[in-house]
Design brief:
Distance between the termini: 28 Å
Strand order of the largest sheet: 9-7-10-6-11-12-13
Oligomer: single chain
Number of strands: 26
Number of helices: 38
Structural class: alpha/beta
């Protein structure tokens, strides 16, 4: 399908629906829209209907495109259409998609409501560019023709009329009489204009948001503020990314208005901007803020339109002489050096101050007297930003802004003073140091192998000469010299190898540990009567080959743990996880009991609904209500958590619980740990018939914390990189993770993982296996550096870290576990000096969700089986196999049982699974291991060049790479160069395709209403206690105390949503980015 040529300026709002973190796909869509000429206002993930409608109205958009993968899509889209119609925007085209999760019946229903939903079949037929072209064709109409702006309505403050008037100014349709009326009304009012400009990437929009937030808080929302953000139009194609609204958290409500504008030409300031400013002044706003695009050194186009101007830059401007070329330093009333946490910030503050002294010829003043401020918009409540705000407030007051004494206390700093870096500036090269360590280790391996081979060779020659009676030959000296080149560790390995081989011979290995004798079966018998070794040893009889084997591979359970972290798998315990999450806690509890029945180990893997994933409570509003108990279980209180795991002994050594949750993970973890403690206290009361004493209760509590097993995901770094459930600022979230780990150390929590460092969600967002592995390990080492910087001992926290990977169909997935274990072990021992326990990387595998296709769904089980097989061959510590119907719905009891059967069949029927190191000795596995490891180290180098993981995240490196790889996958899937059976090849003939009817797993109305009632009842019963607990929680966060310690108490009386809102107030809401 040929791309449609636009006849009108077309503006599209793009977003992912409420509580939906799958931002990668809609990001790809908006990029294609831009390339085809559209102006795109991208809102990012987790957007409510209210936010989308507000954006559509303020931005006067032609259409809105929403992706929705998390369920509740019917209610969401129908509510969106209703709200648009009620706001007089029924002309706006609504399109959406959700892969296969929006089934044909729902697509038909939504089409009747006026929503165009694209299905996977549409994608096959049209391709991504074709789908976008059809959307733009539908949206290609003149907005002014749907209704002109009424001048009186604009003067009365009607937002819809205001937005249409700005559109009229942009397209040149505004009548001259209207333009004159707006100019006259504007001239009659005193409304200062703050102009903000600066270098690209300096954080202007984030700083603008922080300034607006402070103004609203300080002036208690007495003032009406309008923000106009200008972005450049691309000369090629005519499209534009209007990318500032996504960064704004402070523009909600009727006291703030935000409008994005494209330059629509090769200029810094659009032609319509003067008229737009007049319209906003006439509409009754007290302050107009105009932010213009990132510029170079010579542009100052905003100055003639501003009463007060602010120039934003970063510390990295080059040599001080470069400052002489920045035109805005002649005109700016204030200068912000943003991102002040970067190196060289204090020097930059001094140099810019000196330049302003010269430019203003204020030679009697000091550089520190100049209006130059060091700010960090990414730091919550940054005092540098507050200082800048108070300076601007004074300047704007001189221009007529009616400010009053503010509520914000005055600050006496000129730059950020409270920045606490997660990774100290002196440690930003940590990934480069790790790559150097690992490459050095392998170089040493080659050196040691050659040295061992030389000793062996000379020893043989020496023995032969001695046997021949030759003594005067000099080989003895050479042999002595060669032996000195072999480290003691290697020599001990060589001498001890025969005994090691002997210990793996026979049918049983006997090991004495203190006063216990442990017996391990070494073989399993096949149906034919053959004894198959559980661990196969290499047949190498040459020292160099053995040295390479020991240092690169070794037996399972031995450094560097390439073949696995334990010598043998536990008998009669499969790594299978029982996955459930649907409806209310009672329904999911019944599913867990069904799945675990008759199993020797209980590994409960919990999926939460998207309301819980985003830290909110169930509510009646349609875009929330539709998601309650859908695609996961609804958990909002401690009582919900107790009902969820009722009947399971959470302290049993065969029980572990995995909770897939990130943003609100600290609260959910506090719910769970309190549940485990209360379960033991209840057991004491039932057994003893009385309340425990204070000492007894403490002992029970300590025992529960020491023995509870499981993991909570909590990995905020991958959430930001893969754009999932980010709730709070990265700074606050990382601090909270450190608080949790410190609390674990203080309370002896040794068997529960404080974080599951996840590559799964990075892969699901579109990353290839190399990027998944590299980003995940890099994130893991970032946590290591962060915790070390807090003063923790590596051996106290490293055992509490676990990893979580996706297994797909690509060849590299066969070795990602072994590569991860080897890199982690070498770095931990050689670089960080960690002990054996800390060197062992434990990881969970989940089969790929991207491999689940809505077409020919039965084929999904085949893919899942192959992915499970390589996970088991690679000695994954636990494994979750996806159900085939997860392509479209929450899995049914039948499909989950099939998914579990895949693992059971491999482990109990598949013959080669009798052996526990089948990958070792394979030429291709060996080569792939080295190839993938080197690719990961090369990625480490690229991340390190960008300032480590956090520095790379600041520039969007990981997100951009993930999106590029996702787009490559989609293109290759569509053009057939990546064959996918049943999807783009080997498709059933048209006439033989039977419509697949899948029972959609949705929470019942009764379950939804029950959850709403239970939360309301809980909040009512604990109202007074909750108020006190929330106050203590906020106080702890502001004072820098361990927040998790206080959260453990607050979780007993507060609901999830109450705690999330409290954290928003003191930790800061996450600021989305494109």
């Amino acid at each position: 399908m040929a791309a449609h040529t636009l006849q009108n300026p077309v503006r599209i709002v793009t977003a992912a629906s409420l509580f939906d973190g799958h931002d990668a796909s809609i990001n790809i869509m908006r990029r294609i829209m831009q390339s085809q000429g559209a102006e795109v206002i991208h809102l990012g993930h987790n957007r409510s209907v209210q936010e989308v409608v507000e954006a559509v109205l303020d931005e006067d958009a032609n259409g809105v495109a929403v992706s929705s993968y998390q369920g509740g899509h019917v209610e969401y889209f129908e509510y969106l259409v209703q709200e648009l119609a009620a706001a007089g925007a029924g002309h706006v085209k609504v399109v959406g998609g959700g892969g296969g999760v929006i089934v044909p019946d729902e697509i038909a229903r939504l089409r009747e409501s006026g929503v165009t939903i694209f299905s996977p079949q549409d994608g096959q037929r049209l391709g991504l560019p074709g789908m976008i072209s059809s959307v733009l064709q539908d949206c290609d109409y003149a907005l002014w023709d749907t209704g002109a702006a009424d001048v009186q309505a604009v003067l009365d403050g009607d937002r819809t009329a205001l937005s249409r008037a700005i559109t009229g100014a942009e397209v040149g349709a505004l009548p001259e009489g209207d333009r004159r009326q707006y100019a006259e009304a504007a001239a009659a009012r005193t409304v200062p204009v703050l102009g903000i400009t600066g270098t690209g990437g300096s954080g202007k929009s984030s700083l603008t948001d922080e300034l607006v937030r402070r103004l609203r808080v300080d002036q208690e929302d007495r003032l009406r503020v309008a923000v106009v953000a200008v972005d450049p139009t691309r000369r090629k194609g005519g499209g534009a990314l209007l990318g500032d609204r996504i960064r704004m958290n402070a523009i909600t409500g009727d006291r703030a208005y935000f409008r994005s504008m494209a330059t629509r030409g090769d200029k810094e300031v659009p032609d319509a901007l003067p008229a737009t400013i007049d319209i906003l002044k006439a509409a009754g706003f007290d302050l107009v803020i105009v932010e213009t695009p990132g510029i170079g050194q010579g542009d100052a186009g905003i100055v003639p339109l501003s009463d007060v101007s602010l120039y934003v830059m970063t510390p990295e401007f080059g040599a001080a002489s470069q400052l002489e070329k920045i035109d805005m330093l002649d005109f700016a009333d204030a200068v912000a050096i943003n991102k002040f946490e970067r190196r060289g910030a204090m020097d930059a503050l001094r140099d810019v101050g000196r330049q302003l002294v010269r430019n203003r010829e204020a030679f009697g003043k000091k550089p520190e007297d100049m209006p130059v401020f060091g700010t960090s918009a990414a730091t919550f409540n940054d005092d540098g930003v507050t200082a800048l705000y108070q300076e601007l407030r004074s300047l704007l007051a001189e221009q007529g802004l009616p400010v009053q004494d503010g509520t914000l206390p005055a600050v006496d700093v000129r730059h950020s003073s409270g920045i606490r870096q997660v990774v100290p500036a002196t440690r930003v090269r940590y990934l480069s140091e790790i790559t150097e360590t690992i490459r050095g280790y392998h170089a040493d391996t080659e050196t040691y192998a050659q040295a061992a081979r030389r000793v062996e060779r000379l020893a043989l020659v020496d023995d032969e000469l001695a046997a021949a009676g030759k003594t005067d030959h000099g080989v003895d000296e050479l042999l002595e010299d060669a032996r000195r080149a072999v480290p003691v560790e290697i020599q001990e390995m060589i001498e001890g190898w025969p005994a090691r081989v002997e210990s793996y011979s026979g049918d049983e290995q006997v090991v004495r540990v203190r006063d216990k004798v442990l017996r391990t079966s070494l073989t399993k018998e096949s149906l034919s009567g053959n004894k198959v070794p559980r661990v196969a040893l290499p047949a190498y009889d040459e020292a160099g080959a053995l040295v390479r084997y020991w240092r690169k591979e070794n037996l399972p359970g031995y450094f560097p743990y390439t073949a696995g972290v334990f010598p043998f798998k536990r008998d009669n315990e499969d790594p299978a996880r029982m996955f459930a999450g649907e409806g209310d806690p009672f329904r999911t509890n019944r599913r867990f009991k069904l799945l675990s029945e008759g199993q020797p180990a209980t590994r409960l893997s919990t999926a939460f609904d998207s309301v819980t994933l985003y830290g909110q409570d169930p509510a009646q509003r349609p875009d929330i209500y539709g998601k309650v108990g859908t695609s996961g279980v609804s958990v909002a209180t401690l009582e919900d958590m107790k009902a969820l795991y009722d009947g399971f002994d959470l302290l049993a050594p065969t029980t572990s619980v995995s909770m897939t949750i990130n943003g609100p993970a600290p609260t959910v973890l506090a719910f769970f740990l309190n549940t485990a403690i209360d379960q033991q206290l209840d057991a004491f009361r039932a057994g003893e018939g009385r309340e425990p004493s204070g000492a007894e209760a403490e002992e029970i509590r300590a025992n529960a914390l020491a023995n509870v097993r499981g993991t909570v995901q909590a990995d905020i770094l991958k959430e930001d990189q893969g754009q999932n459930t980010c709730l709070f600022t990265t700074e606050f979230s990382l601090r909270m993770m450190g608080d949790i780990q410190q609390w674990f150390i203080d309370h002896g929590v040794r068997n529960f993982y404080s974080v599951s460092i996840s590559g799964y969600h990075i892969a699901e967002a579109g990353a290839n296996p190399i990027s998944q592995l590299a980003f995940t390990l890099a994130n893991g080492f970032t946590y290591v550096e962060s915790y070390l910087a807090r003063g923790m001992d590596i051996n106290d926290f490293a055992p509490n870290l676990s990893f979580f990977f996706s297994n797909g169909m690509d060849v590299e997935y066969s070795v990602i576990g072994r590569v991860a274990r080897r890199i982690w072990a070498i770095a931990m021992r050689e670089k960080y000096g960690a002990n054996d326990r800390s060197q062992k990387l434990k990881y969970h595998v989940q089969t790929s969700g991207r491999s689940l296709h809505a077409q020919e769904m039965d084929f999904n089980d085949i893919r899942t089986t192959l992915q499970a097989l390589i996970a088991i061959y690679d000695n994954a510590n636990s494994l979750h196999t996806n159900a085939y119907d997860e392509a479209v719905t929450t899995p049914s009891a039948e499909s989950v049982r099939r998914a579990l059967a895949i693992q059971l069949i491999i482990n109990r029927e598949w013959g080669l699974a009798m052996n526990e190191n089948p990958n070792q000795g394979s030429f291709i596995i060996d080569q792939l291991t080295d190839l993938v490891e080197e690719a990961v180290l090369a990625e480490f180098d690229r991340i390190s060049e960008r300032g480590g993981v956090l520095g790379a995240m600041e520039t969007g490196y990981q997100r951009g790479k993930i999106q590029d790889e996702s787009l490559n996958y989609e293109h290759r899937k569509h053009d057939g160069s990546l064959p996918i059976i049943g999807v783009n090849t080997f498709r059933a003939p048209e006439g033989e395709r039977e419509p697949v009817t899948v029972e959609l797993a949705r929470a019942t109305t009764q379950e939804k209403e029950s959850q709403l009632a239970r939360v309301a009842d809980f909040q009512k019963r604990h109202e007074q206690e909750a108020d006190l607990a929330l106050a203590r929680l906020k106080q702890a966060a502001m004072a820098g105390d361990n927040v998790f310690a206080v959260l453990m108490d607050a979780a007993r009386v507060c609901s999830l949503g109450q705690i999330t809102e409290a954290f928003f107030e003191v930790g800061g809401q996450y600021r989305r980015n494109v």
